[in-house]
TrEMBL record:
Protein name: Glutamate--cysteine ligase
Superkingdom in the source lineage: Eukaryota
Catalysed reaction equations from the record: L-cysteine + L-glutamate + ATP = gamma-L-glutamyl-L-cysteine + ADP + phosphate + H(+)
Organism listed in the record: Loxodonta africana
GO biological process, one term: negative regulation of apoptotic process
Gene behind this protein: GCLC
Pathway: Sulfur metabolism; glutathione biosynthesis; glutathione from L-cysteine and L-glutamate: step 1/2
Record's subunit section: Heterodimer of a catalytic heavy chain and a regulatory light chain.
Length: 637
């Protein structure tokens, strides 16, 4: 989850003293990059996915599953046996926030040919197999977005008590610091976010009210002032970064051919974020309770919210410069392409000096305000050895701020002196149980970018509407119940990337009929007379493409999954998990997930992921047969 520097981390007070230095040099570093590569074009499509994994241990005798705090050792071995031994190794492994997490990507980015889509799932299987091979027999790597009993007593192996004392990183009542990755970046982030904010982070997730759930549902925390004040009735209260960043997701990064293509894709995909997030919903349970949300987004957002009371608007501005309307982890606040300009209707807080400096350096308004907005944030971590840098050849200060703006989309300038082009990262998706599903979501998104570019599609709506969609997307069963603002006429024609889209307008002048509320089924599958549907558009694109039979078959299976999830014919992971718990013989309709229920759920998830049992409600029944009855052998056998 961002830049990993080695060295001695500074405290918040020390980091704060260097904040202006980091920002000033971060901007100089950005300018060096920008001037060096702003005219780069003709980069080819390259792309890659990132899957985050949890390590779990099953205690079959006591029917208990725990998160294993061995991520650092497992990662070390994976890297040693993999990339360090063979630069062409097919997988790459990186640390993640939890000491029970690892992150895997393909060893090399995928290229632009259609047949690459047929290698994604295979690569994901390799990753799962590779990581699994290092674990003990009763352990597994799971692709679950949120661990249902995260923060419950004894949820880690080895077990640790939380340490809500001064000096701890989280000071959490529930989440022990030992569950944080041992690389100093992660505990420093945790501690500095808390110090900057001036109190522990506060996460309140609405509880799902079942027949026997106490109403009001109230947990008392008499021993902890902060918790007593912050926890809300009818909510599951959490108080640590780990409750958010300790969740897993599925991300995709693309290299665009030029900066303007990257800006165009950034904008277009921003509107798709809430839609795909709802379609990928996989996190209904928190701290041992059934919640009323299906997606992790708001939880992570609150878990890293370092804004002070002044910045949050709770006190008059005295020591801080701005009111800031969102957490660092949130949806994007401005479009970057010329076509997006007229839809930029969110009040954007920017660092005015930085904005002026960027304009003076020849950067246009939209890009300048984007960067000046990211740079209202303070650096959260800084390493003593990394304060004075060579701005022409390093970008750590830029990356420091950039990579702790965890937004739905990320616009990524090339690293200095590299042959990497301008990239865009798509970040909202929840990770799915199986490699098949994860491949399906990834392929869907990548294909969508191809279609957006080939057909010059335009999904833009006012950004405030995208924000409203983000809120709807996280609600329970949003995929079937939610209504989302979406553009009606997406085929505007004209060469949007090259020509821009004419003069900016004030959003209040927009004809209101450009967008309307649609269900996900309508957006994805289309509805006669209302909207053509993304899947039908992808299908017609595929029909016109040269694709080998095997790849076509895989892609069609992936799209079928997305289609059926959107129509409700198949369940989202969140819905399936809810039903699993609701039907568990131990469940008392009181919204409580016991150790034993958690054990059976995660065991089942692991069996599904390893194809030891079928799960037609989630995956359908025909997909796998179609895929694996062909001549191509399943490489995991
Ligand atoms: N795990 C985080 C999430 O679920 C993302 C961390 C990262 O940026 O890699 O969104
Ligand atoms: Mg990550």
């Amino acid at each position: 989850m961002g830049l990993l520097s080695q060295g001695s981390p500074l405290s918040w007070e020390e980091t704060k003293r260097h904040a202006d230095h980091v920002r000033r040099h971060g901007i100089l570093q950005f300018l060096h990059i920008y001037h060096a590569v702003k005219d780069r074009h003709k980069d080819v499509l390259k792309w890659g996915d990132e899957v985050e994994y949890m390590l779990v241990s099953f205690d079959h005798e006591n029917k208990k599953v725990q998160l294993v705090l061995s991520g650092e050792e497992v990662l070390e071995t994976l890297q040693e046996k993999g990339e360090r031994t063979n630069p062409n190794h097919p997988t790459l492994w990186r640390p993640e926030y939890g000491s029970y997490m690892i992150e895997g990507t393909p060893g090399q980015p995928y290229g632009g040919t259609m047949s690459e889509f047929n290698t994604v799932e295979d690569n994901m299987r390799k990753r799962r197999k590779e990581a699994t091979s290092l674990l003990e027999e009763n352990q597994a790597v799971c692709t679950i977005t949120s661990f249902p009993r995260l923060g419950c007593p004894g949820f880690t192996l080895p077990e640790y008590k939380p340490n809500p004392v001064e000096g701890g990183a989280s000071k959490s009542l529930f989440f022990p610091d030992e569950a944080i990755n041992k690389h100093p970046r992660f505990s420093t982030l945790t501690r500095n976010i808390r110090h900057r904010r001036g109190e522990k982070v506060v996460i309140n997730v609405p509880i799902f009210k079942d027949k026997n759930t106490p109403s009001p549902f109230i947990e008392a925390f008499p021993e902890d002032d902060e918790a007593a004040r912050a926890s809300k009735p009818d909510h599951i209260y959490m108080d640590a970064m780990g409750f958010g960043m300790g969740n897993c997701c599925l991300q995709v990064t693309f290299q665009a051919c030029s900066i303007s293509e990257a800006r165009y894709l950034y904008d277009q995909l921003a509107t798709i974020c809430p839609i795909v997030m709802a379609l990928s919903a996989a996190s209904p349970f928190y701290r041992g309770y059934v919640s009323d949300i299906d997606c992790r987004w708001g939880v992570i957002s609150a878990s890293v919210d370092d804004r002070t009371r002044e910045e949050r608007g709770l006190e008059p501005l005295k020591n801080n410069n701005y009111r800031i309307s969102k957490s660092r982890y949130d949806s994007i606040d401005s479009y970057l392409s010329e076509c997006g300009e007229k839809y930029n209707d969110i009040n954007l807080t920017i660092d005015k000096e930085i904005y002026e400096q960027l304009l003076q350096e020849g950067i246009d308004h939209l890009l300048a305000q984007h960067v000046a907005h990211l740079f209202i944030r303070d650096p959260l971590t800084l390493f003593e050895e990394k304060i004075h840098l060579d701005d022409a050849n390093e970008s750590d200060h830029f990356e420091n701020i950039q990579s702790t703006n965890w937004q739905t989309m990320r616009f990524k300038p090339p690293p200095p002196n590299s042959d990497i082009g301008w990239r865009v990262e798509f970040r909202p998706m929840e990770v799915q149980l199986t490699d098949f599903e994860n491949s399906a979501y990834v392929v869907f998104v990548v294909l969508l970018t191809r279609v957006i570019l080939s057909y010059k599609l335009d999904f833009l709506i006012p950004l405030s509407k995208v924000d409203e969609n983000m809120k709807v997307a996280q609600k329970r069963d949003a995929v079937l119940q939610g209504m989302f603002y979406f553009r009606k006429d997406i085929c505007k024609g004209g060469n949007a990337v090259v020509d821009g889209c004419g003069k900016a307008q004030n959003s209040s002048e927009l004809p209101p009929e450009e967008y309307t509320l649609m269900s996900i089924d309508t957006i994805i599958n289309g509805k006669e007379g209302v909207f053509p549907g993304l899947i039908p558009i992808l299908n017609s694109y595929l029909e016109n493409m040269e694709v080998d039979v095997d790849t076509r078959c895989s892609i069609l299976n992936y799209l079928k999954l997305i289609k059926k999830r959107a129509s409700g014919e198949l369940m989202t992971v969140a819905k399936w998990m809810r039903e699993f718990i609701a039907n568990h013989p131990d469940y008392k309709q009181d919204s409580v997930i016991t150790d034993e229920m958690n054990y059976s759920l995660i065991l089942k998830c692991n069996q599904i992921a390893n194809e030891l049992c079928e799960c037609p409600e989630l995956l359908g029944s025909s997909f796998r047969k179609v895929k694996y009855s062909g001549s191509k052998p399943d490489s995991s056998n």
